[in-house]
Amino acid sequence: MTEIGELDEPSLTEALVAEVRRPVDADARRVAALHVLDWIATATAGLGTEEGGILTAFAASADDGPAWTIGYGERAESTAAFVNAGLALVLEMDATHRRARLHPGPVVIAAALAMAQRQGTNGARFLDAVVRGYEVMIRIGEATGPTHYRYFHPTSTCGAFGAAAAGASLLDLTDRQWVDALGNAGSRTGGLWRCRLERTMSKLVHVGESASAGLRAARLAHLGLTGPRHVLEGELGLFAASCPDAEPEAVNRPGGAEWKITETSLKPWPGCRHAHPAVDAALRLRRHLVADGVPAGGIEEIEVVTYPEALGFTDQPRPASTPEALFSVQHLVAVALARGEPSLDDVAPPALRDPELAAIRARVRVASGEPYTSAYPSSWGAQVSVAFRGRWYREQVRDAKGDPESPMTAGEIEAKAGRLLDRAGLTGSEIAAGLAAVANLPTAGGLGQLVAVLPGRSGPGRAGPARR
Q: Rounded to the nearest 5°, which phi and psi values hold at 237?
């Protein structure tokens, strides 16, 4: 058991709080605004799914409040955070941090938006909360280690810390209150990966509960509820309980990017991020095949070599549903070779039944190997090789499209958002208003313009049945 004298020593959490309370620069706010746009688009498109309908029904059963719940309207802060976080994860098109192995956007932005509305804050303070929430969530995620990832969903484990940090930033808590908020957020964290092995929707509970619990921890700290200072590294703390190969030094490791949000990858296509390096390589191959007149249906063999964790998540040779297709490297590579950049239509049931895609998918063999295994998790890479009439074509990708080394441009992020919002049923003028609202966030006096374009029960800023 930790001795009282040990508690007098500075904790990792205290050092982390001192670091993240520094001023947020204009560049980080600009990046955060693009992440907010990406989050809004993915969450709004999530309304059209079965999971989206369930989350909307959950919102309908909850209490009224000041926070906008996408697809329904004003609800309590905790409900808005829970529902909006889940919606942003449904389609597997959200932001990913590679070394931390987690998705900060769904949790942190949902939490920050819910509290910011209740606090009546301006756009800059909202973006600062997003940046600080990402920072805390990612730093702790980087420290948890690979064994933790085997059993726990880090987006859940570390998400409550990120949500609490966003809330602490908006509430302007003292250093001690920040530590209390993070301590209590971490003391109830979890998120078992058992849900990966069964056809469940539990990941939505993981992110929703993390977002709402983190906000509660921040509000309780503001009222004086104390939490453990050594929740990370202390006896009976997070690392001791669930991270046998933790890297505590990563929490406050110097160097690297000014803010972790700038290291976070955005997804140009749907699907588990672990499959994206192979998709990217397949897309590059497709250009060579088309130039040489090689029909996708004529490909005789397809080999994918990547790192073991990618196969643990995406080795799904016969997907039978959209959720399974999103986690099938075989299907996504087949789509990339036959059709080009994957879209949401390409993971829908008709595409799964398409004879050409099924035939190509059946030819995909997967394996793990170097240099991808050693480079992971700093780099998520893959090689794809295809054979046609005795000739092999190969492409390898060290960093996929959307990674910091191969970033999506602001225009590409806006185009992705436009496609998703159009798919969700928004009109051209509504989409344009959304893009303008996000662009104006750094100087906006409030969040009214942004909230006005979020879908409600009959469209942006209005009430009536949720659009499916």
A: -90, -175
